[in-house]
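INFO  loader      accepted 1 record
INFO  loader      residues=144
INFO  predictor   begin
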Amino acid sequence: MTTIGFFAIAVFGLGALSVVTDADIISVPDTGQAPGIIGMIVAVAVFAGILYLAVRITHPKFRSVWAISIATAFAHMLAAAIGALVVTGDFVNALAVMGELITGGASVVILATAAIAGWAGVALRRTRAKRPRWPWERDDIDEN
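INFO  predictor   done
INFO  writer      dumping tokens
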């Protein structure tokens, strides 16, 4: 649930950043949309993987949110750069994509979104939340 939330909030945040700054998130010539798509797929996969590892323990710590958010933002930036390198074949374009993600604020959006969604995932695990159940599904029905 938090992985889907991370993706949704990240897409919204990047769209809002683009609208507010009136600029593309990645405006390096000849890159197209592939670096952004690859970056987001890898970011979601890294977020889900590290969150899964963090919440596997019985009583997960909120300290793991730092690792989740930093690794997710770094993976997004690196994957987008590799995507730009594959698409354009130019190492300078890959570095330019990384620079735009950092200076344009997209990496901060991914970092903050991963921190919020990661915190929510750890909080859900710590509360031992379960799916909602109808009254007739419960085992503790009082028979008066």
